[in-house]
Specification:
With 287 residues, the protein is mainly α. The protein has two domains: 1-95; 106-140 and 176-287, Outer membrane efflux proteins (OEP) (Up-down Bundle). It contains six helices and two strands, in the order ααααββαα. It has helices at residues 2-40, 45-80, 104-114, 116-138, 175-240, 246-281, and strands spanning 144-151, 158-165. A two-stranded antiparallel sheet has the order 1-2. 21% of the residues are buried.
Length: 287
């Protein structure tokens, strides 16, 4: 669980670095265009300076994301007990969410069959039942059959004898062990029930968290990301032609940046929630 979580955090940090680099490259192109406009007198010096100052935010985002990526790699290497220098490793993997192909009922069934703590509880109950059967068997009284034969000189000659011995059950045997093992069965049954309830609660809670995250992610995937990109491009185009204010231009850049970061953080939350579902079920069911 911890290793998978650390791996996902590296993927998130890499994705944020990628977006930060993309944003600063896009903004640098806009600065270059507006530098030419400033030289032509199309915008004032103050407006151009404000454009350049806004680049500080994008540069800060990039440096912060690089630090976070390095920290995430260090954490992963520590879990792997790996001594490779952090600058010499790279992590590859898809950082996109996909809709789960399973449902809650299926996850509950898998958990009941796969969770190690449930299997341990079931094995403990089986052992208690076996111990009780052994105690009952040790307390039972069984008849004893015997046969004897001999050949001697006359007058006895040859004879064969049979015997049957049946103990009289005046006092029950092994009473204490029978009672102890029966109580042990009752106790382990209750422990198994409690473990099962806890396991199903874990599955239900982790599934609810996953579904909540998906509800937030879906509109980003289908609408918000596209709208933020369209608004940024439209306002940038309008500003370069004097049809939008500097404030509108800066707001559009900020909204696009915030939308992208929110989306990536939600994908990271989805990965974390999926990891928790897998942990609560007892095996990987959501990639």
């Amino acid at each position: 669980f911890n290793l998978r979580d650390a791996f996902d955090r590296v993927l998130l940090a890499k994705a944020v670095v990628g977006i930060a680099k993309e944003n600063i490259a896009y903004y640098d192109r806009l600065i270059s265009i507006n530098r030419d406009r400033f030289g032509e007198g199309a915008i004032s010096k103050v407006d151009f300076q404000r454009l350049e100052l806004q680049r500080v935010q994008f540069e800060s985002d990039l440096q912060t994301s690089l630090v976070n990526l390095r920290t995430a790699k260090i954490d992963l290497l520590q879990l792997l007990r790996e001594r490779t220098p952090v600058d010499d490793i790279d992590i590859r993997g898809s950082f996109e969410f996909t809709e789960p192909v399973t449902d809650l009922e299926e996850l509950r069934k898998i958990a009941l069959a796969a969770r190690p703590d449930l299997r341990e509880a079931q094995e403990t109950l089986t052992k208690a039942q076996t111990d009780h059967k052994l105690a009952v068997a040790n307390g039972s009284t069984d008849p004893t059959f015997g046969i004897d034969g001999s050949h001697q000189a006359p007058p006895i000659g040859t004879y064969i004898g049979f015997s049957v011995s049946i103990p009289l059950r005046i006092f029950d045997k092994n009473q204490g062990e029978k009672l102890r093992t029966q109580l042990d069965i009752t106790r382990t049954q209750k422990l198994e029930d409690a473990t099962q309830i806890a396991a199903l609660h874990d599955v239900d809670a982790s599934w609810a968290t996953l579904q909540s995250t998906l509800e937030l992610l879906r509109p980003y995937k289908t609408k918000y990301l596209r709208e933020a990109s369209d608004i940024r491009d439209t306002v940038s185009f309008a500003y370069q032609r004097g049809a939008a204010s500097l404030l509108d231009f800066l707001d559009a850049q900020r909204e696009y940046r915030d939308t992208q970061l929110n989306y990536l953080n939600l994908v990271g939350s989805y990965f974390s929630a999926a990891n928790q579902v897998n942990f609560s079920v007892g095996r990987e069911v959501i990639q």
